Amino acid sequence: MDDLKPRYARVVLKLSGEGFGPSGKSGISLDETLSIARQAKRVVERGVQLAIVVGGGNILRGRQFSGGGELIKSATADYMGMLATILNGLALQDALESLHCETRLLTAIRMESVAEPFIRRRAIRHLEKGRIVILAGGTGNPFVTTDTAAALRGRELEADILLKATRVDGVYSEDPMLNPHAVRYEKLTYDQVIRDNLRVMDTAAIAMCKEAELPILVFNFKEGNIERAIAGHTIGTVVGDVVRSP
Questions:
Q1: Which residue from 28, 108, 118, 159 has the highest number of Cβ atoms inside 10 Å of its Cβ?
Q2: What residues does each domain of the chain span?
Q3: What is the pLDDT of residues 121-144, one digit of tens each?
Q4: What are the phi and psi torsion angles at 146 (to 5°)?
Q5: How many CB atoms lie within 10 A of CB 166?
Q6: Could you give the residue ranges of the DSSP H alpha helices within 4-157?
Q7: What would the pLDDT profile of 25-71 be if each residue is shown by its tens digit?
């Protein structure tokens, strides 16, 4: 029996910028990017429709300029962060295509010389044709996180689940780096996350997923975990009141 048989037909994967670089360092690592690309290829070869929302924290986070006064305004800083996600998207696209995967890079900020503009129907058509869709540029608006962008795209593309791949292996009661006795949750409801102010996604993203009953799985993106997550293995933390099956 194939223990990696996909449980979900269409998936939106939110990949943090940390997935593109070594822990604690900035920039793009070719080895890390290729590791993600290999996992994505294996998933799609199993028949899963995969859209990947990329972050940009390995290059620049808009909030690092907070308090900058009039030098760099908050809105400008957020646009800079959105452009960083496009750099990661381009790197991932070439990594995937080096593995002979068919891809499309779609951006919320129009730049037709390097990517297609995000159009919902077009994105769904790419998925139906077996292409890996890379979504960059956030929502195209400042003051909105890439987590919220991932929740929005999950709803627009009618995904079965929203996966959030990070460097931690789930959601904890406290920061496990500061408190070794912090408890990792296996399952949470949307209301628990909001009530206890747990650091899963921002409140807007959680509320959006709750309204659509779109489950969220937070897990570590180490080798093989993306496949395990899509196969429904017990890894990370599931957030949701109802876990859908296709």
A1: 159
A2: 10-239
A3: 999 999 999 999 999 999 999 999
A4: -70, -20
A5: 19
A6: 30-45, 74-98, 120-128, 146-156
A7: 789 999 999 999 999 999 999 999 999 999 998 998 766 665 555 67
